[in-house]
Design a protein that fits this description.
2 helices; five-stranded antiparallel β-sheet; alpha+beta; HIT family, subunit A; 114 residues
């Protein structure tokens, strides 16, 4: 079954897309946790980090390069930003299509609540 991210990638569901190429699609989160909150999603469906294979190495590196480029375009690269990939339920993953959160535009605070 296609995830909501697959439906966004295919154009079935509209989204505020900020970047797209043949490997990844990046779009603004509809429930942002920071002034800049963009999701970078591989166009290939990969459920979790645990499902990544050796064939996906270049794709994952590409996601980070895309995140860096978007951060520059969004004007948050100088002040800093955070990249997050959650894995499975205990890791906070809600949609089981691998995705990276690009967060910035304010001081983000500690990684985890104590």
């Amino acid at each position: 079954m296609a995830t909501i991210f697959s439906q966004i990638i295919s154009g079935e569901i509209p989204s505020d897309i900020v970047f797209r190429d043949d490997r990844v699609t990046a779009f603004r989160d509809i429930n942002p946790s920071a002034p800049t909150h963009i999701l970078i999603v591989p166009n290939k469906e990969i459920a979790t980090v645990d499902d990544v294979t050796g064939e996906d190495e270049a794709l994952l590196g590409h996601m980070i390069v895309v995140a860096k480029d978007i951060a520059r375009k969004e004007g948050i690269s100088e002040s800093g930003y955070r990249l997050i990939i959650n894995c499975k339920s205990d890791g906070g993953q809600e949609i089981f299509h691998l995705h990276m959160h690009l967060l910035g535009g304010k001081r983000l605070g500690p990684m985890l609540a104590k």
